[in-house]
Amino acid sequence: MSDLNPCMTCGACCAYFRVSFYWAEANDGGGLVPAQLTEPLTPFLRCMMGTNSKHPRCGSLEGEIGHRVSCAIYPNRPSPCREFAMSGENDEENEACNRARARYGLPPLYKDMLFHTSLEAATSVLTAVQSAPN
């Protein structure tokens, strides 16, 4: 089993949801998010560039979904990114995480899986669950 957190190989949430937040989280409003990587939604809301489209993908996401990914602004990411929990983290399932993962053909993460489950281990668990006799 790998000690790699599944979020480090996933990135599905960064390419599934619109990431919107209060405008003052951007650095031109006193926050940390680089304003040049955002776009306005309303007078009070912004979103991460690339996430307000039919096929969203955050402009700060680097790498290939389902493989090794990273966030170019991780220490300065907006509140929705900071608050979004990986499914299985703290023994809680996050259906939104698993929906995003499913969109990219990635297996769901379960609350009873170890936090540091490798993709191979998660896939074998999913296969076992799906092929269990009814």
Automatic annotation (TrEMBL):
Annotated InterPro entries: Puta_zinc/iron-chelating_dom (IPR005358)
The protein depicted here goes by the name Ferredoxin
What is the native source organism of this protein?
A: Pseudocitrobacter corydidari
Q: Which Pfam families match?
A: CxxCxxCC (PF03692)
